[in-house]
Design a protein that fits this description.
Blueprint: H1 2-10, H2 15-32, H3 37-41, H4 55-62, E1 82-87, E2 92-97, E3 111-112, H5 119-127, E4 136-138, E5 141-145, H6 147-150, E6 166-169, H7 182-200, E7 207-210, E8 213-214, H8 224-237, H9 254-257, E9 265-266, H10 275-288
Parallel strand pairs: 2-3, 6-7, 8-9
Antiparallel strand pairs: 1-2, 1-5, 4-5
Helix pairs in contact: 1-5
Length: 290
């Protein structure tokens, strides 16, 4: 999601236009049932897919929504943009950027991709969450979610070009109960790894804004509006004071980095189960027994 949001903002879209793309994308994925029963059926496929959902199928679903998902090239984006992905063959961070002079490679073996590619392809590569989405093939690279090595891209900004770096973070771990499903164990392991490296790479951040908004599951779709509304409510009640941000960044304190858990926004979405949801529930129960 981060790479798509960054691409939309760097393309010069207004907040209303970004919201519209979010809603339309969420609705299209939800209606496609890509992450529903057919994803479970892929477990039994003889073609042995590299993810529950093929990235090419996801691209087909979102392509009609907006031109950003279609003909726009990375070089067409007017504002500086950097999108990280990880090559699981070479263990390298591959950075797609239209203006690489504004960024730094961070890791010794990281590389800036030198060719121009469709913007959506870079975003999909950065979004290819292991196990869930299949890797994206670009040249000799087999690319997966950039979050495996750099979940907070704030570390990419070059302080020689950028005066201040402000980051927004949300909780990474969604559940704390014991796990008993193989897929959940694998996903939780990835989340723990991502959370730890995110804290390690935070030295490049001048101001870290922590949004303690409790989100639904990572790959649950169809509820973007209440999620966005919960984010708006949280920011309204916990405004970020940017008055003197270009003059002085206040020293970070332990108290400012952690919000009181009682002030967090809990998203509760209750609605009657449709026939489609009942079928999906049946397949989920079947998946739990695998």
């Amino acid at each position: 999601m981060g790479s798509f949001l960054a691409a939309a903002v760097a393309s010069g879209l207004s907040s209303d236009e970004v919201y519209e793309i979010i809603y339309d994308t969420d609705a299209a994925i939800s209606e496609s049932s890509l992450f529903g029963p057919q994803a479970v059926l892929s477990l039994f496929s003889l073609r042995r897919p590299m993810g529950l959902v093929l990235v090419d199928k996801l691209a087909e679903v979102i392509r009609p929504i907006n031109k950003l998902y279609g003909e726009v090239m990375l070089s067409d984006v007017p504002k500086p943009l950097a999108i990280p992905a990880v090559d699981i063959i070479s263990n390298q961070l591959i950075i797609f950027s239209n203006q690489p002079e504004f960024f730094r490679s961070v890791y010794k073996n990281a590389k800036f991709y030198e060719k121009d590619i469709p913007l959506v392809k870079a975003c999909l590569a950065s979004s290819a969450y292991p196990i869930i989405l299949s890797p994206v093939k670009i040249d000799d690279y087999q690319l997966v979610d950039g979050g495996l090595m750099m979940n907070s891209p704030a570390a990419l900004f070059s302080k020689e070009k950028v005066e201040y770096v402000v980051a927004a973070r949300i909780p990474m771990l969604e559940k704390t109960a014991p796990l008993n499903k193989r897929l959940d164990i694998a996903l939780r392991s990835i989340q723990i790894m991502v959370k730890n490296q995110e804290e390690t790479l935070s030295d490049n951040i001048d101001l870290n804004y922590f949004l303690d908004v409790k989100l639904p599951g990572t790959f649950e779709f169809g509820d973007s509006k209440p999620i966005v509304q919960a984010g708006k409510e949280y920011v309204k009640n916990h405004p970020l004071d940017t008055t003197d941000i270009f003059e002085e960044i206040a020293p970070k304190t332990e108290a400012s980095e952690k919000e009181d858990s009682s002030s967090s926004v809990e998203i509760t979405i209750e609605k009657p189960a449709t026939i489609k949801e009942q079928i999906v529930g049946f397949w989920n129960r079947l998946k739990n027994k695998i």
